[in-house]
Amino acid sequence: MVVGFIIVLGLIAFTVWLIHGIIQLWNMPIPKSAYESEISKCESPIERRVFRGLLNNGLYPTPQYRVGKYWIDLAFPHQLVAVECDGKKYHSSAKQKAHDRKRDKYMRERGWTVLRFSGSKIHRNLPEVIRSIKEEVEKTKKAPTKP
Questions:
Q1: 39 and 64 housed in the same domain
Q2: Nearest 5 degrees, angle CA 10-CA 11-CA 16?
Q3: Measured between alpha carbons, how far is 64 from 102 in angstroms, rounded to an integer?
C-alpha cells in the first residue's frame, strides 16, 4: 500500500516537472537566426523592412498570421497585436480603405490591437514605427486565443 502511494506521488511529481518544463520552453524566445528564414513569408518590401527592424530590436513577429478569414502582415499572437504595413498600391483607394476598416473591426472584436502604418511612414521613420510596435507589444500581455 505504501509503495503504491509512493509510486503515485512520484508520477505526480514527474508530471508537474514535465508540465513546468514545457511551459518554460513555450515562453523561451526563439533565436534571431531561426527567424531569418521567416522573412520569405513577408509579401512586400515594406513588410520585410519592418520585420527586420523588429528582429533587430528583439521582437519576433509571425509573418502572414491567419485570424479567421483574414491574414495579418506581422502578428504577435500571444499579445494579440497585429501590424499592418500599407503600401500605396493596395491601400489608397476608397474601396480598399473601407475593406481595411472592416478587417480592423473584425480583429478588434476578437481582442486584437491593430497597428497600421503607411509605406511612406515606414520609409521616412522606421525607428518611430518600431518604437510604437514595441510599446504596444510590451504593454499588451494577453493570452493567445484561437482565430
A1: yes
A2: 100
A3: 18
Can you point out the beta strands (E) in 11-103?
62-67, 70-76, 81-86
Q: For residues 6 and 45, state if they share a domain.
A: no
Same domain, 24 and 52: no
Question: Judging by beta carbons within 10 Å of its beta carbon (0-12, 13-18, 19+), is residue 49 exposed, middle or buried?
Answer: middle
CB 59 within 8 A of CB 91: no
Residues 48 and 2 in one domain: no
Range of the domain at 14: 1-30
- The grid coordinates of residue 58 equal 528583439
Average pLDDT over residues 37-44: 77
43's CB contacts (< 8 A; 6+ apart) are: 64, 73
**pLDDT over threshold 80, residue 51:** yes
Say how far apart CA 80 and CA 53 lie, in whole Å. Answer: 19
Is the domain of 8 the same as that of 78? Answer: no
More confident residue, 75 or 11: 75
